[in-house]
Each structure stands twice: as structure tokens, then as C-alpha cells.
């Protein structure tokens, strides 16, 4: 059974930084692409970024240059490092196991990120 557990969310001022972590279990982590998604109030869930099994990354245009995804296969953990945060980054952030067709196969429960102006 796949389990994805996010941590690291919180309240931060605009311009600040946060690091989210996602610990995975129940999968052969190093073979899987992992992703971060977010959902703001009243909006659809959107992709923030994906890291492939080989470390290649893709990002949404809105976060390029500010957010970085990394992974530690020894710890079965994927990270989202968020810099220069803006109020519009406020959302619940979800970790996901991503399939070969960029479909999400499993979701974490999410962690709240709130950026104050």
C-alpha cells in the first residue's frame, strides 16, 4: 500500500522560504517519478513540479526559478524547496506518485502553506 506523508508546511511572510518533505513507503521509490501539486481555495489542483526517476525536473511556469524539487532515494523522500514565496503561492501542497503518462497514481494528504503579504 502506497503511503505519501507530507510535512514542512506553515505560515511564512512574502519573500520567505519553506522546504516541504514527502516520505514515501510501499513503493520502490527510486524507480518512480514523484510530483508536487497544489490547490488554492476555489481553484483547481495544479502541477507545481515533477522529478523523474533519473532526477530530471519539470516545473510550472509560475514557480520556475523560485521552487526546486529534489529527491533522496536513500531516504525515500522528495523535497520541494520554495524561495521568494508570494501570497499567490498560498495553497494546500500535495505530494504524488506520478505514472509514466504523467498521471497521478497516488496522493498524499497535503500540507498547508500560507504566505502573508
Characterize the structure shown.
By secondary structure, this protein is mainly β. Helix content is 0%, strand content 54%. It has no helices and 11 strands. It has strands at residues 3-7, 10-13, 18-25, 33-39, 46-51, 57-59, 67-72, 77-82, 91-98, 104-107, 111-116. The strands form 2 sheets. Strands 2, 4, 5, 6, 9, 10 and 11 form a 7-stranded mixed beta sheet that branches. A hairpin with a 5-residue loop joins strand 9 (91-98) and strand 10. The termini are far apart. The relative contact order is 0.32.
Record the SSE blueprint.
Elements: E1 3-7, E2 10-13, E3 18-25, E4 33-39, E5 46-51, E6 57-59, E7 67-72, E8 77-82, E9 91-98, E10 104-107, E11 111-116
Parallel strand pairs: 2-11
Antiparallel strand pairs: 1-3, 3-8, 4-5, 4-9, 5-6, 7-8, 9-10, 9-11
What summary fits the major beta sheet?
7 strands, mixed
Counting helices, strands and paired strands, the structural category is mainly beta
The average pLDDT value, as a whole number, equals 97
Our estimate of the beta-strand percent is over 45%
Spell the H/E element sequence: EEEEEEEEEEE
Q: What low-confidence regions span 5 or more consecutive residues with pLDDT below 50?
A: none
Radius of gyration: 13 Å
Into which percent range does the helicity of residues fall?
under 10%
In DSSP terms, counting alpha (H) and pi (I) runs of 4 or more, how many helices?
0
The total strand number stands at 11
Distance between the termini: 40 Å
Query: Given the C-alpha coordinates, what overall shape results?
Result: globular
Amino acid at each position: 500500500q502506497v503511503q505519501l506523508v507530507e510535512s514542512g508546511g506553515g505560515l511564512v511572510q512574502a519573500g520567505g522560504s519553506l522546504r516541504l518533505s514527502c516520505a514515501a513507503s510501499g513503493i520502490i521509490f527510486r524507480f518512480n517519478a514523484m510530483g508536487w501539486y497544489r490547490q488554492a481555495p476555489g481553484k483547481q489542483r495544479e502541477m507545481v513540479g515533477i522529478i523523474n526517476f533519473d532526477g530530471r525536473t519539470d516545473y510550472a511556469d509560475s514557480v520556475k526559478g523560485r521552487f526546486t524539487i529534489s529527491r533522496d532515494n536513500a531516504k525515500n523522500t522528495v523535497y520541494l524547496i520554495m524561495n521568494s514565496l508570494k501570497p499567490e503561492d498560498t495553497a494546500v501542497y500535495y505530494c504524488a506518485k506520478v505514472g509514466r503518462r504523467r498521471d497521478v497514481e497516488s496522493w498524499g494528504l497535503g500540507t498547508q502553506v500560507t504566505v502573508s503579504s
